[in-house]
Amino acid sequence: MTGVVVCVLVLTVFTVCPVLPWTMRQVVAAERADRFVQVVAHADDDLLFMSPDLFGAVLGGRVTTTIYLTAGEGPTGWEDDRDPREYAGDRQAGIRAAYAYLAGVRDVWRTRILQLGRLPVRVDTLAASPRIRLVFAGLPDGGDPRADGGRDALQRMWERGACVRRFTGPCPHPCVRREDVVATLRALYDRYRPTVLRTLDPNPQDWHGDHTDHTISAKFAAEAARGMKLKMLAYRGYTMTGWPANLSWQASRLKEAVFQVYRRHDYRAASGWRYAAWLKRMYPIRPEAFGP
Ligand SMILES: [Zn+2]
């Protein structure tokens, strides 16, 4: 379905604009004239699991769009006193700041809401580098027991046809089903015409080794791309934790520098040994992992 702009907002966020050290830019290979779409579950999955591959398009000024299916609120506000909507907003602010930092421009974005079928999405476009977009679908995080039907909303939508209302979003909230998510992703692909689609691992060997939101987000992304001519790349999520560190010192430093910009906005990511492990690793998966 063709996207219709139902409302336009302008978001202006000014921060001091840090500059990446010149030497760090050299660790990221220049990309060719591809257009990239990433589909992930949470607003740091791209930084943790698809980086530094992700960075080439941003640093090279290519067209790149990252789609975050969930609001990433987790159990915030359920197991502590924080406001979960504020936290979801913090995560969005964090990922915007990280991309602006990587692009070397001010953290100023233009925001609009696209009504794509039954699942509207928020699209933030980096003002000084409008080829960079972040799309937030606002579905409930798998760790949120307040979602319609309880935890694991994405998984229940994928496997059992559950109808679930979004957790965040400025427009009315009808519940949406698997086919609505697929239709919105398909509409976003049609709009942004990726030649390369990056996802998390849709078929981890150890299902319980990764966050189910990661796995299901990859299945949604692949389902929406069915029949389209594009290159699909998948990346291991939590399951890479025990694998050997495989990034160079420089690549790891760059990954850490970008993630630290995000991390200042995410109290749940403030500590944890697994983050240190992920910042030293990136594991792409062979394309056949997508299967039929
Ligand atoms: Zn995640």
Automatic annotation (TrEMBL):
Any Pfam family the entry gives: PIG-L
Keywords (alphabetical) are:
Zinc
What SUPFAM superfamilies does the record point to? LmbE-like
Record carries keyword Transmembrane helix: no
Among InterPro entries, the record links this protein to: GlcNAc_PI_deacetylase-related, LmbE-like_dom_sf
Q: Which residues cross the membrane?
A: none
Name recorded for this polypeptide: PIG-L family deacetylase
Q: Which organism is it from?
A: Nonomuraea typhae
